[in-house]
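As described in the Methods, two query proteins were run sequentially through the folding procedure within a single session, without resetting any intermediate state between them. The first query and its resulting structure tokens are shown here.
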Amino acid sequence: MNCLAWMKKEGLRVLPVFLFFLFFFTVINWTETYLFEEAGITPFRFFEVFLAAALIAKIILVVDHLPLVKFFRRKVLIYQILWKTAVYWFILLLVRLLIRFIPFLFGERSALFDFELVFNEINWRLFISIQSFYLLLLFIFEVFEGLVKRVGIGEARRIFFGK
């Protein structure tokens, strides 16, 4: 397979995942902006949301090939959906925590060892509420991905869009 065919194949695999997360990350960012602006929370710029969606889409596609994710592949679909949702949610939690901690690691006042400062600077209610929303989004994503894999892309298009 030549390089262009491989790039096209990978691009088509990542595009739906990327668009799904780009849309919902943008909605979540707007929510953070409008509801929590008074709390002094700086919203992400669109480019940062774009990069986060691309990162999560690629992480999902890479993790999808790990044996850990295929743990329930011979069980009924709900087991696989719940397991993959939990695994992706945990990875997303780690990525979000890393994103929130990076300014403390490389900022003017390095708080590498001052965990109390880091812990107090993060709005945990907001963080947990957004993480809960991500759990719902990942579940919806996994339900549709599981159904499309089971019935096939052609049948899924027919079911959702007709002929």
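Immediately afterward, the second query was submitted; its sequence and tokens are:
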Amino acid sequence: MVYVKEKARPFAHGGAGRLLIALMTVTLLNAGGSLACEQIKTSQELRGVVTAEEFVPGEILVWFNDDLSPADVDEAVERTGGEIIRRSDVTPTRVVISVPEGKEDHFVEEYRKMKEVRAAGKNQVLKALPEDAAAPGPGAEGGE
């Protein structure tokens, strides 16, 4: 009798091999999930530095649907009110619109009602660090 040694196929017989793959997948997903949670946490911490009172008066930010052309965006702004004062070079459907001071909330709500708009809000002032945590400048004690 001749015995032929079969090639080893580590996961061919199910059971333990499949369990090992499942455990590895869950472990990797959990690691990725915790990284995502850290990113969200960091973003939320930065967002806490912004207050509702800190925005550029007379300006709102509007993000139109990406399938619109710049001409479509211009037409929608003309129809709704305001004037485009800046447009993103990277995403031309994201614009800063000049509106009458004191009417920012009204215009934000009007733009949010439009089916062509993904998001709209006041042009908020963001600070990377709270003012008391900022690094000292040149000539200040501890600065260069």
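The two ends are 86 Å apart (CA to CA). We note this only descriptively and draw no conclusion about the first query from it.
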